[in-house]
């Protein structure tokens, strides 16, 4: 250990070393990032401008769009810069800042998706008490709780990782500073950190996922008891977008988490983290705008107003 030098920066190895691939990857991820920002910005703008969408469900959807823009912005600009310039280094502090904010935003999204499932449960299973249960104060409390729980989780992970010793090599076998690949570079004992990661995976990842699963089991059971086919279809349609987003997010995130456990290689399946960290945030606005009548209607109204104002 006496000959160990302290690491002051890391090298993010990225998706490929092939020079000819980097230009194509730059174009692809620039498109992904711009589409993510534009799509989610449109969703947020429509929700803010349309009074008919000032309801708990769309309040949470607007916040989901904000999280999607945030999580993409934590990863993709640095990735695009590396692809364009070929400069793959990131400072020690910069790496931990990126890790902290990604953990914060991804964790908040886990909790928020559970909150959105609860909102659908109250709307379908307790419709007469909906406005009382999902009051403005309650919605704000649920949102703040989601952020606070995730803030605690990301702070614990960042602090626990920052006290580890890094002697070299300093090449992170990933496309951003994530917790598991960072542990692999440490010359300290990371067994406690890995236990902490496993515990967080249960409470921050699997906990909300289990809650969503149980909630939807009750929701589906309630919907199937509705005698009117039209009302059943309408009830299912209000859940379809959220359920699609949940399956996309949790399906890819869970697979990515499993492959980060000891015994799995980071060289395999780097495409999976890209799906939940970059592609899913891009697809979410599309899912909600295509599968949600109210959002489609609000978009048409907004475009009609813009067209009319432009005409005059």
From TrEMBL:
InterPro entries: GPCR_Rhodpsn, GPCR_Rhodpsn_7TM, Olfact_rcpt, Olfactory_GPCR. The chain crosses the membrane at residues 24-48, 57-76, 96-118, 196-224, 236-258, 270-290. GO terms for cellular component: plasma membrane. Pfam families: 7tm_4. It is found in: Cell membrane. Residues 39-288 form the G-protein coupled receptors family 1 profile domain. Keywords: Cell membrane, G-protein coupled receptor, Membrane, Olfaction, Receptor, Sensory transduction, Transducer, Transmembrane, Transmembrane helix. The keyword Nucleotide-binding does not apply. One of its GO terms (molecular function) is G protein-coupled receptor activity. This is Olfactory receptor. Belongs to the G-protein coupled receptor 1 family. It is a multi-pass membrane protein. Signal peptide: none annotated. SUPFAM superfamilies: Family A G protein-coupled receptor-like. The keyword Zinc does not apply. It comes from Geotrypetes seraphini (Gaboon caecilian). Its main location: membrane. It comes from the Eukaryota. The gene is LOC117368359.
